[in-house]
Amino acid sequence: MLNQDQIQQLNKLEENTHHTEFKQLAERMTSQGINVEGVLNQLKNFQVAIPSWALGSGGTRFGRYLFGGAPRNLFEKIEDVGLLHQLTANADSISLHIPWDIPKDITAIKEAASAYKLRFDAVNSNTFQDQVDQQYSYKFGSLSHVEKEVRAQAIAHNKEVIQLGTALGSKSITVWLADGSNFPGQNNFQTALEHTQNSLQQITHALPDDWKMFIEYKPYEPHFYSTVIQDWGTSFLLANACGPKAFTLVDLGHHLPNTNIEQIVATLMMQGKLGGFHFNDSKYGDDDVTVGSIQPYKLFLIFNELVHGMAKNTNNPHLSWMIDASHNTKDPLEDLLQSLDAILEAFAKALLVDQTALKQAQEENDVVVCQELIQNAFKTDVRPLVSQMRQRAGAAIKPLVVYRKTQQREIRIQNRGLDALATGL
Ligand SMILES: [Mn+2]
User: Fold this and answer.
1) pLDDT over 80 at 290, yes or no
2) CA-based angle 77:82:83, to the nearest 5?
3) Per residue in 293-330, pLDDT tens?
4) Predicted pLDDT at 424
5) How many Å lie between the centroid of ligand 1 and the Cα of residue 266?
6) The model's pTM
């Protein structure tokens, strides 16, 4: 674990500049009638889960390059998420992917996590690849498969994941289904959807009372002609069919180019069916690159709907936030630090939008003022707010600088080796 004194010493080097910048921003916010403390509190309470598969190099279908010091087991993954949380105060949970990370010694794993003040967020099932010891193949589908035995095996796997999650203290399961077809005529769309609905309903029955199920959608890949749960409408339909414990999960990369994701968010929140979010960024498809690295304005517009929606629609559950990214060219931990910054900054900017003035301008059809209000918030440099929140929480004013100066990657390469390999894709 990183020594807390090291963070404080390095914070001292940034303190003067930070203080001046924060003071200036806080004064401007106060003069605009914004409650600075309120914003800082909301930033502090915004906690993002780190998936256990995002700590190693993801690679592409063309190959994978190692970067050294990757976590070799679940304990080392907990160590890495713990470091992210220590540095940022915004990563208080870990999301497990079963069977890439099967927790064997539950007590030891829970102890390791709590030593880093971490909890377990949504558990993720996997029926998109075959495991060594499984009886039936998912080559032609899992929950939607034409054969009952295959569907039963996939349902049983999801139930097992719920059991493991319960032991760890998780409260939700995310189901992402790769089922689909590569060629016209291969699948009967209605039959596949009926089977899927029926399978998901059976999984819902296995959920403990205080659990939720998130249904993730994706338009294409790994199949290229059709995907059974292709869009938010299909996920929403299934979530409704599964009842009050089921919700739709939005993964930013799971849309066709130029889809208006913020509008999807607004619609789902109005219906009380938005359950969670997977953050990443993309240029063309499900690129899974660093959050906010390509389209930060789009991310901000989504947060603007989330902020509005969370205040207006109290029928929504507490939303689950997770980073779902893959790292091919960067140190995964540095990438995740950049993603956490981007998420917090987009959220902070959205909190600066004057919702009352915006509502008034909308009612007056003053299109110009509407745009000004939205863009004034977006163009504000909110980094001092995020730093201020982190400094108060005992985290780093500049997480990435502390990460590099304390040589976290070098330490990991020394302890775990240059050729260490993380489980996952
Ligand atoms: Mn996802």
Assistant:
1) yes
2) 100
3) 999 999 999 999 999 999 998 877 889 999 999 888 99
4) 66
5) 19
6) 0.97
Convert the pLDDT of each residue in 361-413 to its tens digit. 999 999 999 999 999 999 999 999 999 999 999 999 999 999 999 999 999 99
- When the pLDDT of each residue in the chain is averaged and rounded to a whole number, the result is 96
Q: Are 185 and 145 in contact (CB under 8 A)?
A: no
CA 279 / ligand 1 centre spacing (Å): 8
Residue type, 148: K
Ligand 1 midpoint to CA 126 (Å): 12
User: What is the Å distance from ligand 1's center to 324 Cα?
Assistant: 5
Distance CA(86)–CA(394), nearest Å, equals 8
For ligand 1, the distance from its centroid to the CA atom of residue 145, given in whole angstroms, is 22
The 3-class SS string of the chain reads: CCCHHHHHHHHHHHHHHHHHHHHHHHHHHHHCCCCHHHHHHHHHHCCCEEEHHHCCCCCECCECCCCCCCCCCHHHHHHHHHHHHHHHCCCCEEECECCCCCCCCHHHHHHHHHHCCCEECCEECCCCCCCCCCCCCCCCCCCCCCCHHHHHHHHHHHHHHHHHHHHHCCCEEEEECCCEECCCCCCCHHHHHHHHHHHHHHHHHCCCCCCEEEEECCCCCCCCCEECCCCHHHHHHHHHHHCCCEEEEEECCCCCCCCCHHHHHHHHHHCCCEEEEEECECCCCCCCECCCCCCHHHHHHHHHHHHHHHHHCCCCCCCEEEECCCCCCCCHHHHHHHHHHHHHHHHHHHHHCCHHHHHHHHHCCCHHHHHHHHHHHHHCCCHHHHHHHHHHCCCCCCHHHHHHHCCHHHHHHHHHCCCCCCCCC
> Whole-angstrom Cα distance, residue 165 to residue 94?
11
CA 243 / ligand 1 centre spacing (Å) = 22
Rounded Cα distance between 2 and 116, Å, is 11
CA of 251 to the centre of ligand 1 (A): 5
Residues 6 or more apart whose CB falls under 8 angstroms from that of 176 comprise: 124, 128, 216, 218, 251
Report the separation in Å between the CA atom of 288 and the middle of ligand 1, taken as the mean of its atom positions. Answer: 9
